[in-house]
Amino acid sequence: MPDGALRRYVVVGGEPELALLLHIFPEGVEELDGGYAVYAEEPPIGFDVVAVDDVADGWEDGWRAFHRGVRIGRLWVGPPWEEPPGDAIAVVIDPGRAFGTGAHATTRLCLELLQEGEPTSLLDVGCGSGVLSVAAAKLGFAPVNAADIDEVALETTRINADTNGVAVEVGAELRPSRLGLMNIALDVVEGMLPELPVERAITSGYLAHDEPHAEGWHRLERRVRDGWAADLLEFRS
Fold first, then answer.
1. Single pTM value for the model
2. Which residues of the chain form beta strands (DSSP E)?
3. For the range 76-85, what are the long-range contacts, defined as Cβ-Cβ under 8 Å and sequence gap of 24 or more?
4. 105-235 maps to which CATH number?
5. What digits encode the pLDDT tens for the residues 174-230?
6. Which of 10, 15, 16, 165 could form a disulfide with 51 if both were Cys (CB 3.0 to 4.6 A apart)?
7. pLDDT in tens, 119-152
8. Four-CA torsion 99, 151, 130, 20, nearest 10 degrees
């Protein structure tokens, strides 16, 4: 197969693997019986790939029909080829070569909790595509800082921020902020909370029967959707 060709990679795993895939491919993952599929030029590193398929000509039409915008409160998150509702705050995210139905349950939960608070300074840890950072900026949060260790994620966030005409500071540094966002795996959330230079944090990326624990952090609110959970936490010294 030629280099740079799009392929469909099928991996095996359960909910932890899905959480990690959604971080790498935040715009969508195709769920299968006993596994998941992603569309990319290179295989996802660290996963048990059990099948690799060429993508047939004309895949774009079916993929675009499958990827639809979603309404979350005042926000609409969707691809550039769809027209957002006139009464919504539009967050336009080009899914590139991911495959999915739009915002995953964990993203929706984070966006719901984000809309309940007053806009303030914000730190998005593990920014991925930048959808949460862009949405926060659209809601009036400032300054918005997006952090990730993946250079592809940082560049994607820059592009999506520019596309939406919002200011997002992008880099690897965890800058002090009033509110933090972490839509990543549970063990990463628990590992990052003690280092997070924020007063409150919205966390997700884990199942409803899981709950992050870290010294000094207390839960103020919890939301659950489709078996996934998100929490609003506050640090009390």
1. 0.78
2. 7-12, 30-32, 35-40, 49-54, 70-72, 75-78, 89-92, 122-125, 144-147, 169-171, 179-183, 200-207, 217-225, 228-235
3. 77/102, 77/103, 77/107, 77/111, 77/131, 77/135, 78/102, 80/163
4. 3.40.50.150
5. 999 999 999 988 999 999 999 999 999 999 989 999 999 999 999 999 999 988 999
6. 10
7. 999 999 999 889 999 999 999 999 999 999 888 7
8. 50
